[in-house]
C-alpha cells in the first residue's frame, strides 16, 4: 500500500506547495535574503570581470558566492552581460557578517559583497548565476539561506544549458573535488583592455590598480572597511611535529604551547549549560596525549584564523584519529555547517548518528524518539521550493513496512538527487535524524515515471 502526499489527497497543502514552487524563482531575491549589513546605495562605474566590479567611489567589489570564467570567450561574454545589467544603474551594496574577521576583503584586497539592483531589489550575484555567466563558488562565507538561493539560480542555468553550462557539466570546484584536490581561485588580474567608464571619470590608476596585470594586495586598496586590524601571519605547521601539555579551554578551543589558542575546524563551541560537561569530555580525549595539527586550505584567505584571532586547525590524536570528528561523533558538540571545509560531510554524518542515538552532553535527551512525518514533509517542501522551478512534486511512503520515503518530480536527476539529500542533511540542524526517528530507513529520489531511482539508505 502506498500513502501519497499529492494534489488530490491534501488540497490545502498541495495548493500552498504549488504557489510556493511557482513563485519562488520569480520573486525578487532581496525579499528572500536577510543577511549582513547594507553599506551604501551607489552606482557601478566599471565591470572588470564577470564577478568583479568597481563602485562609483573606486571600491573594487568581489561578488560573494559566484565564480566567473577567468579567461577566454566565456569570460568576455560574462563581463559584457554584467555590464548590461549594472552600468548606469543604482545598486545597494551589502556585506556578509561572517566576513567581518576578514575585513570584508578577499586575499586580493577586493571587498566581498552582495549587490542588489534597484529598484527591482534583485540580487545581482544570483542573476549572474541564473544567466549561466558564472559558477556557484563555495569557498566564500555565505549564510545557509542565501546559499540555497544561489544554488537554485545555478540549477536553473544548468537545466537550460545557459552560458558556461552550454558545454560544461561540472564547475571547476567540482572537478577539483573529484580529483582529490582543493580548488584555487585564479589570481585576480585586471583586463588588459581598459573599459570606458560610465561617467568618463574612472581610470585604473585612480582605483589603485596597476595596468601591468599583476595581482593586487589588500594594502594597495586601502584599509579594511570594517577597521579590523590585520591578523598576524599564521605560523607554518610541521606535518610531523606533535605537541603535548595541551590545555582544553572548551570543546572547540585548545591552548597549545608555542601555538597559543587554536580553534577546532567544524566544531561548534558549547557555552550553554552543557558547556562544562563538553569541555570535560574533550579533556578525556586529549589529556596526556601528543597531538598533531594541520590547516585547511579553504581558510587560507582568512589567514587560518577565526574572528578572535585563534588558529583554525584540524587536530589528530596519536592513533591518527581526527579529534574534530571524534568530538562531534561522541555527541560532545554540534558541527559548524556555515561554510565548506575538507571534513564537513564526514562530520555532518557523525553528528547525525550522535543525534539520533542521543549521545554525549550535546544530544542526550535533546530530541524525541518519534517525530511526526508532517514535520519532515514540511522540511522537504521547503527544500523542493528552493530546488525546483515549478510544481509537480510528490512525496509518498512505500514498502511493506511503509519505511521508504520516495520523492518524485520530473526534474529529478542524479546530481539533483544528491544535492537534495545533502541539503536535507544540513537543513534546520540536520533532518536525517528526524527521518530515522520516524522509522524511515531509506530515501528515494525518482522521476515521475520511476525510470531511475536514486537510493540513499539511512
TrEMBL record:
Residue stretches making up the TNase-like domain: 38-167
PROSITE patterns assigned: TNASE_3
Region (Disordered): 189-236
UniProt-listed InterPro entries: SNase_OB-fold_sf (IPR035437), Staphylococal_nuclease_OB-fold (IPR016071)
Pfam entry (one): SNase
Stored SUPFAM superfamilies: Staphylococcal nuclease
Keywords in alphabetical order: Endonuclease, Hydrolase, Nuclease
The protein's name: Micrococcal nuclease (Thermonuclease) like protein
Amino acid at each position: 500500500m502506498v500513502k501519497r502526499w499529492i494534489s488530490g489527497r491534501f488540497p490545502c497543502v498541495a495548493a500552498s506547495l504549488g504557489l510556493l514552487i511557482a513563485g519562488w524563482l520569480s520573486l525578487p531575491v532581496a525579499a528572500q535574503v536577510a543577511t549582513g549589513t547594507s553599506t551604501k546605495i551607489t552606482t557601478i562605474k566599471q565591470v572588470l570581470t564577470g564577478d568583479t566590479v568597481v563602485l562609483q567611489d573606486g571600491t573594487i567589489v568581489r561578488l560573494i558566492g559566484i565564480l566567473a570564467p577567468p579567461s577566454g570567450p566565456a569570460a568576455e561574454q560574462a563581463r559584457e552581460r554584467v555590464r548590461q545589467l549594472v552600468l548606469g544603474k543604482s545598486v545597494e551594496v551589502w556585506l556578509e557578517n561572517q566576513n567581518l574577521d576578514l575585513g570584508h576583503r578577499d586575499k586580493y584586497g577586493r571587498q566581498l559583497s552582495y549587490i542588489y539592483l534597484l529598484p527591482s531589489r534583485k540580487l545581482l550575484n544570483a542573476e549572474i548565476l541564473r544567466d549561466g555567466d558564472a559558477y556557484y563558488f563555495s569557498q566564500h562565507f555565505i549564510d545557509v539561506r542565501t546559499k540555497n538561493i544561489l544554488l537554485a539560480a545555478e540549477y536553473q542555468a544548468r537545466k537550460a544549458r545557459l552560458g558556461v553550462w552550454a558545454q560544461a557539466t561540472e564547475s571547476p570546484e567540482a572537478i577539483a573535488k573529484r580529483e582529490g584536490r582543493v580548488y584555487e581561485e585564479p589570481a585576480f588580474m585586471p583586463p588588459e583592455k581598459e573599459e570606458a567608464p560610465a561617467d568618463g571619470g574612472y581610470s585604473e590608476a585612480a582605483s589603485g590598480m596597476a595596468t601591468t596585470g599583476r595581482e593586487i594586495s589588500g594594502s594597495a586598496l586601502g584599509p579594511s572597511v570594517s577597521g579590523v586590524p590585520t591578523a598576524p601571519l599564521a605560523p607554518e605547521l610541521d606535518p610531523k611535529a606533535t605537541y603535548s601539555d595541551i590545555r582544553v579551554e572548551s570543546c572547540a578551543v585548545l591552548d597549545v604551547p608555542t601555538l597559543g589558542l587554536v580553534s577546532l575546524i567544524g566544531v561548534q563551541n558549547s557555552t550553554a549549560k552543557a558547556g562544562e560537561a563538553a569541555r570535560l569530555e574533550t579533556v578525556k580525549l586529549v589529556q596526556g596525549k601528543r597531538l598533531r595539527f594541520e590547516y585547511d586550505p579553504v581558510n587560507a584567505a582568512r589567514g587560518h584564523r577565526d574572528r578572535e584571532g585563534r588558529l583554525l586547525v584540524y587536530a589528530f590524536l596519536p592513533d591518527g584519529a581526527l579529534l574534530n570528528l571524534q568530538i562531534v561523533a561522541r555527541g560532545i558538540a554540534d558541527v559548524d555547517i556555515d561554510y565548506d571545509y575538507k571534513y564537513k560531510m564526514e562530520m555532518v554524518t557523525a553528528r547525525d548518528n550522535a543525534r539520533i542515538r542521543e549521545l554525549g552532553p550535546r544530544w542526550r535527551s535533546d530530541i524525541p524518539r518519534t517525530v511526526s512525518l508532517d514535520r519532515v514533509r514540511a522540511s522537504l517542501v521547503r527544500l523542493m521550493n528552493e530546488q525546483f522551478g515549478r510544481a509537480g512534486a510528490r512525496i509518498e511512503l512505500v514498502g511493506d513496512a511503509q519505511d521508504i520515503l520516495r520523492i518524485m518530480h520530473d526534474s529529478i536527476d542524479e546530481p539533483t538527487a544528491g544535492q537534495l539529500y545533502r541539503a536535507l542533511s544540513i537543513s534546520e540542524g540536520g533532518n536525517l535524524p528526524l527521518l530515522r526517528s520516524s522509522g524511515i530507513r531509506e530515501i528515494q529520489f525518482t522521476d515521475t515515471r520511476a525510470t531511475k531511482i536514486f537510493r540513499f539508505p539511512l
